[in-house]
Each structure stands twice: as structure tokens, then as C-alpha cells.
Design brief:
alpha+beta; 217 residues; 34% strand; 9-stranded antiparallel beta sheet
Length: 217
Amino acid sequence: MAENYIFTFQDLRKEYGNRGLTRQDLLPSPFQLFNAWFLSAKESGAMEPNAFLLSTATNDGKPSCRALLMKHFDEDGLLFFTNYGSRKAYELDANPYAAITFWWGNIERQIRMEGTVKKTSREISEEYFAHRPRKSQLGAWASRQDMPVHAKSSLESAYSQAEKLYEGKDIPCPRHWGGYRFTPATFEFWQGSEARLHDRFLYLKEGGNWNITRLSP
């Protein structure tokens, strides 16, 4: 029985190779290359090209992973926002190291990053929150992310209460909600290629400079 699982997804196998990636295609700064690839993904029509996977771990090495949305990116790092009472927040408080993965299958590209994460200033959190859609603002007050709920009706009731409380008023940013800045120490750019000989280039910061190494697939 177990042997059958080996071939279950063979019909889903995809051959890569729309393009290659050489050193001549790279840029000196991984931030510049990330920006170029992100714009290509956006222009390609990828669904939510700013979506990424955030991997965190507890102090004893138990990992967890989830999808989030990037809200800003520059040479200081990447910004995302979440509930400070969530599992990822507790794990980042205890272990501020994380990994991020962007996957754009339609253009056969992936970017992986590893680095450190810390909370943004309260001012940044409040500024971003003020520009969120009103329904999203209310949702931040209604949800206690990762906490058990008896039924969805409980969430809907909390949402309605927040809606009544702030009717006709500006909605303040909850203290339990805010931003994080991810500062990458490594980047890996992956481009699909024929025969599974994918192109991978690692940017590693050493002594203030970014060293580039081609990796075997």
C-alpha cells in the first residue's frame, strides 16, 4: 500500500526551463535584484505577488510556517503587520530569527531569505493601520488571533460590537496589533531550469559586502 504513494503525483510533474539565470543577470545588491524580480512577478499577473511564507521556531527548535503579505520593502528590510498575541509573535519574541520564502510559480522563480525580526515603532504601526480599509481595522479589534473560538458567530458578534463602538469615529490601532521589520542576512535567488538543473545564487553579507555564490540545485 505504501509503495503506491511514491507515484501518486507523477501526473503533476512540471518541466521547468522558460529561462536561465547567470551571473550576468545578477545585480550587486540583493535588494535591487529582489525589487526587479518582484516587479516582474507583479507585471506577470501573479496573484498577490507580495505574499510570502514566514517560518519561525521556538527556542527548542519547533518550527511553524504561515503565509503573510509584505507591506513595504527597502534596503532596511521588509515590513509586515500582525496580531502581537499570535503564535508567530510569541515565537519571534523568544527567538527573533526567521526565514522568508517568496514563490512565483508562473515565472518559475523563488526567493528565500534568512535574518532577524523586530517590532517596528508604534508610530509606524499606527500610520499603517490608519490606511487600512475600515473593515480590516474592525477585524483587528474583533480577532484574538490563534485563540480558540466556539463558533464563527462569536467572531461576528465581536466584529459587530466593535462596529457599534466606533460608529462615526476613527478606529484606533489596537495595542495588540502592529508591525515587524525583517532584516535579511542572506538571500537565495532560484530560477527553474531544464532537467532539474535549476539556477541558485546565494548572497551572503560578510564584512559589509554581499558575496555571491552559485549553489548546486
